[in-house]
Amino acid sequence: MTGWTEADAPDQDGRVFVVTGANSGIGYEVARMLAAKKAQVVMACRSEARGQAARARIQEAVPNASAEVMALDLADLESVRAFAAAFLERYPRLDGLINNAGVMALPRQLTVQSFEMQFGVNHLGHFALTARLWPRLLDDGGGRVVNVSSEVHRGGKIRFDDLMGERRYDRWAAYTQSKLANLLFTHQLQRMATATQRPVSAYGCHPGYAATELQGRSGSAIERLVFTNITNRLLAQSATMGALPSLRAAVDTTLTPGDYVGPAAFFGARGYPKVMEPSRAARDDDVAQRLWAASEELTKETF
Ligand SMILES: NC(=O)c1ccc[n+]([C@@H]2O[C@H](COP(=O)([O-])OP(=O)(O)OC[C@H]3O[C@@H](n4cnc5c(N)ncnc54)[C@H](OP(=O)(O)O)[C@@H]3O)[C@@H](O)[C@H]2O)c1
Q1: Is the Cβ atom of 213 under 6 angstroms away from ligand 1?
Q2: CB 246 within 8 A of CB 100
Q3: What's the pTM?
């Protein structure tokens, strides 16, 4: 027996979705699946060339696809603002924003605004992007925000005294912090939407362990070797399977706002997407509020 698959996704004709990091891995697969369901897909990519190459692949797989590449570098808030301004000018509606792009376990690097790269790209860039696109998500009612997290959020801790890892930096701790931040952002966004009776809903999801470009760009040289030669081949599921939770969170009307969706088998590594319980820390109201306030202050963006 199978679980929820692409075939269960309803037709998306006339609906508009933005997918960040749509040129690779999970982002590419969810963009392709949405295009196959007749959605209009905006592929928000930091490299125009990689974005166009991915768009061409989607066009080949889905001949009638409606997909456009627009430039977005989440490591630069000016690029986030320029993307949002261009999108708002061109698109009269936004039904789903899939905050998917991510980096993992990098040596300490900084974004243009001097944020630690993993916290900056995975969380703050998406926080700022969501804030800028918020009016359009509200416009037609029923807009969704999907934040792609990871099961490693369970080991994460938000270090308010050293968010940018200036005093002590551990590349995996910075990654788990950023993935916990994705779910705390989801939690607070949904609470805010409910409290203010806004017709927008927020969902968290995780892809399990999916073989993508991520592992070949992460960790130490030895970790990369093990990931790409051993664990990706033996343990990982396909990027297509890994994209199903994002697709389900974006379009399944049976979900409850705020749900967290991902594969539950093999300790959350594989399988069809189900509604799961995130960690207690990911639903901590106080921490979620503090993170929201810190994110507003750092990005200078409000909702
Ligand atoms: N694969 C897994 O097993 C796994 C498990 C748990 C969670 N995740 C999460 O899934 C999401 C997608 O990852 P993936 O596995 O599909 O990895 P991937 O194949 O490496 O794709 C990552 C995407 O993010 C983009 N990106 C990176 N930095 C960016 C920036 N500054 N601005 C805009 N885009 C940027 C990349 O663009 P470029 O190609 O230009 O670098 C790429 O399109 C991430 O949030 C990751 O944390 C993945």
Answers
A1: yes
A2: yes
A3: 0.97
